Amino acid sequence: MARLRLLHALLFQISILVIKIDAVPSSLLNSDYQQIQDHCFGNEIDPDRTAFHFQPSKNWLNDPNGPMYYKGLYHLFYQYNPVGPLWGNITWGHSVSTDLVNWEALDLALDRTDPFDINGCWSGSVTFVAGEPVILYTGIDDKQRNVQNIAFPKNGSDPLLREWVKPSDYNPIMVPGGDIDPDNFRDPSTGWFGQDGYWRTAVGANMKGRAEILLYKSQDFANWTRNEFPLHESLSSGMWECPDFFPVSLSSRDGLDPSVNTGNIKHVLKFGLMKTLRDYYLVGTYDEKKDVFIPDEGYEDDYRTWPVLDYGHIYASKSFFDGKKKRRILWSWVNESDSEADDIKKGWSGIQTFPRAIWLDTNGKQLIQWPIEEIKSLRKQQVQLRDFELQSGARHEITGISTSQANVDVEFELPSLEGAELFDDSFLLDPSKLCDEITPSDKGGIGPFGLLVLASDVEGLEEHTGIFFKVYKNSDKYMVLMCSHLRSSSRREGVYKPTFGAFVGVDISKDKRISLRTLIDHSVVENFAAGGRTCMTLRVYPKHVLTGQTSGLYVFNLGSLDVNIKELNAWEMARARVNIRNDEFISKDSV
Ligand code: DQQ
């Protein structure tokens, strides 16, 4: 994880050359925090702590691991440091839920106890084998190698799956052979079962500089042999972590069991690129005979051309098939981007995105991600705008609800596309650079228009985070750019404040509308544009909340053309019950 911090530190250094950051004496910050800590018991006062996102009650969290639905309960495991708020001592934390919104913490599922995982229980998955959940995970062994291990429930009739056994006569089940870099061989995917009676799993590996998703096969799920060919490989993009490989329907939003390989389907290979710390995915076909994945036409071995799962701040995502509601659900790790010193003061670090249902767009090319329907159970007061004209230069505050814990759904309508600025193709591979050049004084053609969230009330919105769109014309086509600027998001010291950008895959000339759904939860802002076609998750650490001030929400339009808000609905959100231990709840309500 040092590399994450290093990258952030580097990007932060670069950003201060470009953006003037107000200097805040660190003694003041310390006393701000002290004030909070003095009054802080549990979740109530820590202003950065989220209200409806998954996080442990304290300490470090990273990747989501092995999500599943079993005997009436959803289970989520996660990479967890049980003794501190920074990465290290990695084990599997474990929580259960009946509704994917409220979570109860259980004891560690996997701890570093054996020679094959004594230096860490890293990421992995759960597969149902003969109806019972089985964990595959990466252990860092006594020789500091990445090896793959297996664990079974001690008592499958316990819906809580409290105890797991790691048989030493099985483990490790895969070791890095001669051509595999023992430092980079990890994160076994959920298994799938082939027509030939063999199980498969995909493992990320670095093979002398080449990224390979290795494929292993087994008849009994215990003895595994590496396939002659990798499932997929890339010569140019470095190590691929946390592979997820699953079928998606071309004719329905329903999720599919990982072993389905017939019917009107495609396959998705999702992975995290260590080089960019972003998650990408490829859509294509799985040839079960050769056991290879073939990306669809147009694929190039250049990560800059691959769809990014979320253009903001997420990594190491993991999905599972929810047999209860026949859908595929995905979580992603959202790392902190405040300073390490602040994480130590807070005593926690890392959250998961709100669970997202994912399916393939009708165009067969793009994944759609959308907060699961259970989120509605958290909605409180609602405010609404309808057919509201946002004139050029306008900024309008949404009042009537508290907006630091909110769900906003807005649909912008463009009366015309006349006057869209011309697009320069050189920006195609680097939309965030284009976003970076958009400033409030830039009276563009169509846009920027969008939302300002977590804005300070006083001193002329000194702190605010913009999520906005701008429409460009590229020969006979229109392009919608989505941006988020974090440069004014926080006056706290040591916060990483990048600009994120992406092109939204919609044909704006057809319906002249673009929607944005935003989940605001104290220090995280998840954005879903165009019905979930483009996602952008942000970490935001406003300073104004440290002194008890509330945050504001605005719609704005800085383009020279007026924009209409067809409809805006905003709900204040309730606090979910997330990982507060209460054994009574577990025994009475969950089972
Ligand atoms: N995190 C885990 C690894 C994985 C990485 C270690 C991705 O298994 O490759 O905590 O964030």
UniProtKB/TrEMBL annotation:
PROSITE patterns according to UniProt: GLYCOSYL_HYDROL_F32
Taxonomic superkingdom: Eukaryota
Entry annotated with the keyword Cytoplasm: no
Domain Glycosyl hydrolase family 32 N-terminal: 53-371
Pfam families in UniProt: Glyco_hydro_32C (PF08244), Glyco_hydro_32N (PF00251)
One GO MF term: hydrolase activity, hydrolyzing O-glycosyl compounds
GO biological process, one term: carbohydrate metabolic process
Segment forming the signal sequence: 1-23
Transmembrane segments: none
Domain Glycosyl hydrolase family 32 C-terminal: 374-572
Keyword list, A-Z: Glycoprotein, Glycosidase, Hydrolase, Signal
Entry similarity comment: Belongs to the glycosyl hydrolase 32 family.
Protein name according to UniProt: Uncharacterized protein
Biological source species: Rhynchospora breviuscula
